[in-house]
Amino acid sequence: MRRIGVIGGMSWYSTAEYYRVINERVQERLGGHHSADLLVHSLDFDEIRQCQIDGDWERAGKIMATSAAGLVGAGAQLVVLATNLMHKSAGAIEDAIPVPFLHIADAVAQEAARLGARRIGLLGARPVLEDDFYAERLARHGIETVVPDAPTRARLDEIIFGELTVGNVRPESRAELLAAIEGLAGGGAEAVALACTELELAVTAEDSPMPLIATARTHARHAADLALAPTSGATNGTLVGTRRTGPAR
Predict the structure, then answer these.
(1) Which of the residues are catalytic?
(2) For 134-143, how does the pLDDT look when each residue is reduced to its tens digit (9 = 90+)?
């Protein structure tokens, strides 16, 4: 089993889900009392949130890269970033470490392919929906994306940062999220990715009229599978494929 390093704390609510799901997957695969060989560096989200508000992605990237390097220094053999939005700094992380970095959009693309979906809707924070770093990563896998209209994108930001990242799940906000999912279905989406890890705390597959991709759960399970992959996988593309092979954004 390879040691997994998780950059977390953004928010800690979803990071706790990563810890739970990775361990569940390892126990599912190995049985008995097995659990993951796992390190978590939980950052202070207030500092990261200020970088997001200020648009200071250079500083945010340095924080992410320092965290990743610290995890590798502590023995991590692959690194996972437990947030969708901060994958805007994926390039800084990949440049800072000599071990595989598992990009969340790569895991999402694999799940979309499993579902047979080539056009997926995205729900998430505005930079995830409006910047190109996430959609371009999915496009490498042949996945097209659909996003909500501008008023809905603004409302998603309010729900995510005003409620979900501080632990609140309001019934009326859940209803708005379901309406947004229906809107994406009307726009031709074959599945919807909850491209903010906290959205999984508010909406479940049982709530949705169409297939959902729970990005945190998908990412965490894939990380566990990579950690358990045979050592030879490092030379046949299984792990090397998680490294950057072109522009990160």
Answers:
(1) 83, 196
(2) 999 999 999 9
